[in-house]
Amino acid sequence: GINAEYGKQWYQRRVRATVYYVDHKTSTIYMEYMKQTVVLKDFIDEHVARGERTVLEDLCYNVGYTIALLHNGDIVHGDLTTSNVLVMKRIDKYDCVMIDFGLSTNSSLIEDKGVDLYVLEKAFLSTHPDSQDLFDKILAGYCSVARGQKTVVNKLREIRLRGRKRSMLG
């Protein structure tokens, strides 16, 4: 029905840029140009320098929410970093759009979704030290709408432990 179609369009618009045409012969993708955007990495650096944490907390919540929408559709990004998220100003708030789906897969596996979050966490905390609170906001946004969020977050904890064990063993 109309509501289902609207929901699908909202989901697609919220998560990624619109792809207009793919030319397989020339390996060319024609897609929406995202005007007036900045990568999340630069946005965070700029706002941390200015001491504007509230804007960052709201945006990080939104990032987690958006990742949950992907995972609810069984889309695993595969390369979640603060360089693969664009930030754009919407009337009175900032929104995010995921980019670079080159390593993405379709998967309903909890392990894959947990690894997606783990990759983001490692990239986030190595790029933005002393920002655990912001990553916690990402997880809060994720948990607000992700189907099976407790299972995914538990898997993330398990993956963290495996990662620590691996780094301790060399």
Write the topology of this structure.
Elements: H1 2-15, E1 19-23, E2 28-31, E3 37-39, H2 40-50, H3 53-72, E4 75-76, E5 85-90, E6 93-98, E7 105-106, H4 110-127, H5 132-145, H6 149-169
List descriptors.
two-stranded antiparallel ribbon, alpha+beta, globular, three-stranded antiparallel β-sheet, 170 residues, single chain, disordered N terminus
How would you sum up this structure, described in words?
It is a single chain. The chain has 170 residues and is α+β, with helices and mostly antiparallel strands. Helices cover 58% and strands 16% of the residues. It has helices at residues 2-15, 40-50, 53-72, 110-127, 132-145, 149-169; strands at 19-23, 28-31, 37-39, 75-76, 85-90, 93-98, 105-106. A three-stranded antiparallel beta sheet has the order 3-5-6. Strands 1-2 form a two-stranded antiparallel ribbon. Strand 1 (19-23) and strand 2 form a beta hairpin. Mean pLDDT is 86; it is low at 1-13.
Biggest sheet strand line-up:
3-5-6
Distance between the termini: 55 Å
| Number of helical regions | 6
Strand content: 15-25%
> Percent of residues in helical segments?
55-70%
Got a strand count? 7
Mean pLDDT: 86
Element-by-element helix/strand order: HEEEHHEEEEHHH
> Gyration radius, to the nearest Å?
17 Å
The biggest sheet amounts to:
3 strands, antiparallel
Shape: globular
Structure classification: alpha+beta
Unreliable residue runs: 1-13
